[in-house]
Amino acid sequence: MTSSVSAIMSKGSLSFHVPSMVEDLVKFLIKNNITGAPVVNASGLYEGMVSRRDIFASPTESQTAMLMRRAEPVRPEESVESAARVMKNQHRRHVAVVDSTGKVAGILTPQNFLAYLSENNGKEKISSVMKGPSFAVWEKMPLKLFLTITELSKTYAFPVLDGEGNFKGIITDRDVFNLMEFKSSEASMKRDIQEDDPWSWEGVRNFTSYAVYRSIMKIPEVSVEACMVKEPSTVDVDDDISSAVNIMKAHNFNQLPVLKGQKLVGMIYDLDLLKVIA
Asked: 81, 104, 120 — which closes off a domain?
């Protein structure tokens, strides 16, 4: 049975550094196709965490140190249960693993806990861990309004309903990107990334909200239904937790709509699952 952080963490994780500029941080995350990283000082010692959401929350900040979170790390020898409590209490998707010398040994995200969860708590019911209330959006809602709601609510994935309250699909902030229109000023964000770099376009796409704040992208005048995921993977409220875990692991999903029969009853997020371990 897995019991320590060292057995489930992602080893050799990438770290960023301070002092530095946020523009360089953005390029670092894009280049490495990641959404967060531990931050170290000039001596290589852990200072805090930074993620895409921290950038979204302070879109005008230019210094990495000013948006970095002094987030509590965990140690490799700590229990999985203890680490789950830290992540649950922080309600963030990245927790650094720091060794006894203060250097970064790895990183934890909710995905790291899924196999342990399935092995040890997989028979518990989804209904026992669902967090409420759950909020949905209307399929005819304009994208501009949807993006405003994501920022105000700090929720980035919503079930989608039609005018009669029927479940139609799911939408996340990332789904919006495919309908975005680039402005010529995007070149300023990409000026140090080579055109043959495979992350140049796909990586920038992961920074929809950041780009919107910077007026790099123009939001088209369409509704949620134009980019939502129709017929998404779902689970039933009476399913075992292992059903949700298996889908999340297979597709790297962070959340799933929860149905009872054909009726939407809520959403389950991978962070919700951690409370079973914690």
From this structure: 120
